[in-house]
Amino acid sequence: MSRVSLAVRPIGAAEHLAFLRAQRSVNFLQTPAWGRVKTEWRSESLGWYDGGRLVGAGLVLHRAVPRLERYTLAYLPWGPVIDWTGEIGAWLDPLAAYLEAHGAFAIRLAPPVRTNSWTAAQVKEGVADPDSTRLTQLPGRADPVGARVTSRLEDAGWLPRSPEDGFGAGQPQFTFELPLTGQTEDDLLRGMNQLWRRNIRKAAKEGVEVTVGADLKAFHDLYVHTAERDRFTPRPLRYFETMVAAMSAEDPERIRLYLAHHRGDLVAAAILVRVGAHAWYAYGASSTEKREVRGSNACQWAMIRDALAAGCDVYDLRGITPTLDVDDPHVGLVQFKVGVGGQAVRYAGEWDLPLRPMVYRAFDLYLRRRGSRRRRARA
């Protein structure tokens, strides 16, 4: 595709959604509905045109600079939806030109391309090896598309933003994914470790019932309980109400709430999001009491089975840190997700392109100072 043939201009939500529906898989953070969820950002849909044909699309979230409201950071989480296997300058140059002309001081994007992956067996061996402390120390499998994309971004002046632990201000660089293509339920169970299979059987034996429901208040109460126990800051109920309303309006099958009950008590809950052939475990919650009935495992197994039945290619358990160090508190999450089988995946991460360097530096300093204040507040 010629570099000069592509033009970027705004598109309506209906046109944007129609383009996404023609794709095999798109991250839910690139749907028009996500712009309605992120109410603290201003959103717009952009399209790439080759002549009169729409060939790419992106959801852009704009955030203004404090005290310089006419300038915005233009953020495309897990996007844009373009052909990343081709010459990326043909796609990103017109994007930069459009956004700079409309007041952006920088662009931040997270290409949905993999750079490396490691099997569950490799991760398990790495955790058991005292000489291995990070995923990136393991051989794994490199993806040539991801390597080429990151090299081209760096050559074009884009700046990598992903920190060592893989979690920045935006999206995680490392995820854990369970491939579903060509699998049966029995195949998936065989791919899990013994503990996961035992816990799934335990939940069934104890009479845990998992249903798809709509009681967001019950989910949120359990989610707040989980946040207090695990020491993270919970999102308000209103956030989840907005999320469910926006996504359901766009597609009735886009988002589901799973509730696991044991003898009338809610013991676990989870939210599943699906776009095309990709399903995500988006949020989860569990009770401290009755943990022995394994409601969380029952929820996960129900979501995996439903994703498989829907014809999904992958069930995505989302972010992990790349640690293999048994003394790192984050390694427990890695071990939990590794238990389902599948693979750990490293993506290209988030990248910034400063369009107005002075404003960008001021914004970066503001973020650093705010992060420092938050760390002091937590200490």
From TrEMBL:
Family: Belongs to the FemABX family.
Database matches in InterPro entries: Acyl_CoA_acyltransferase (IPR016181), FEMABX (IPR003447), PG_Glycine_Bridge_Synth (IPR050644)
Protein name as it appears in the record: Peptidoglycan bridge formation protein FemAB
Protein keywords: Acyltransferase, Cell shape, Cell wall biogenesis/degradation, Peptidoglycan synthesis, Transferase
BP GO terms, sorted: cell wall organization; peptidoglycan biosynthetic process; regulation of cell shape
MF annotations from Gene Ontology: aminoacyltransferase activity
